[in-house]
Each structure stands twice: as structure tokens, then as C-alpha cells.
Design goal:
Helices cover 57% and strands 0% of the residues. By secondary structure, it is mostly helical. α1 packs across α2.
């Protein structure tokens, strides 16, 4: 069970609608709980520090796993092209 440490301090900044929407889209793509969580994690990551979040290690591993899955997917597609199969569920040819 993940226990989140209560946040008691607040930092405020102004964004344009476009900036906020970009930040919101990135937070959704990363699977963050909120735009604030995404901004906090990004700020600490950019500064070279790690956020004091117990879920940070899991999130980092999940991003790495996602990246590795994308690499494997591209390699699988390359191999399909080599052997002449098309699509993700092409039927196997009988021997």
C-alpha cells in the first residue's frame, strides 16, 4: 500500500491556456495522479533531485518498462517485415 506524505506548502505560477493544456496532456500520458504531481516530479527530476514520493521508484520503473516495450514492439514489427508477415495478428503459415 502506497502512503502519500501530506503536502503542506504551496507554490503558485501562472500559465497560458496552451501551456496548461500541454502540461495536462503530458501528465495524463505519464499516468500522474494530477497536473500538480506531474509538475512536482518534473521539477525535482529537472533539478537533479528526486521527489520525496514513495511512488517515484515505481513510476520510474513503469516508464522504463514502457520504453522497453516500445523497443520490443518495433523489433517485432521489423522481424515480421523480414519474414513477410503483415499486421499484429497475421496467421502462421503451415509447414
Amino acid at each position: 500500500m502506497v502512503v502519500f506524505k501530506r503536502k503542506t506548502r504551496m507554490l503558485s505560477l501562472r500559465l497560458s491556456e496552451e501551456e496548461y493544456e500541454r502540461l495536462r496532456q503530458k501528465s495524463l500520458a505519464q499516468g500522474s495522479r494530477s497536473v500538480s504531481d506531474y509538475a512536482r516530479e518534473t521539477l525535482f527530476r529537472f533539478s537533479g533531485d528526486e521527489p520525496a514520493s514513495s511512488s517515484n521508484g515505481l513510476e520510474r520503473r513503469m516508464r522504463k518498462l514502457d520504453s522497453e516495450m516500445q523497443v520490443l514492439s518495433r523489433e517485432l514489427e521489423r522481424l515480421r517485415n523480414i519474414v513477410g508477415l503483415e499486421g499484429p495478428t497475421a496467421p502462421r503459415q503451415a509447414l
